[in-house]
Design goal:
The protein is an all-alpha fold and 84 residues long. It has four helices and no strands.
């Protein structure tokens, strides 16, 4: 793996893992009052577009990270819609 791919992989891992505590907190408490619906909707759409971009480029660090992140952010978005 080229050094640029290592940097991309580390960045992707860090930004993806950053969502785990938020998802866990919302899942555990069902409390979403302080989460912005607009922000999560726009963010989830943006991450989905990054995923498509990665697929078009065949860039695995982008694909893997954004596939996981869209699932995590999407989970928070769904819980926000469900629990308000």
């Amino acid at each position: 793996m080229a050094p640029v791919d290592w940097i991309g992989s580390i960045a992707a891992t860090l930004t993806t893992v950053a969502f785990v505590p938020q998802v866990w907190q919302v899942w555990r408490t069902r409390h979403t009052h302080d989460i912005s619906l607009g922000m999560y909707a726009i963010f989830t759409c943006g991450v989905a577009m990054w995923l498509v971009y990665g697929l078009l480029l065949g860039a695995w660090p982008i694909i893997i990270a954004n596939a996981i992140t869209v699932l995590l952010a999407g989970a928070v978005l769904v819980m926000k819609l469900r629990y308000g």
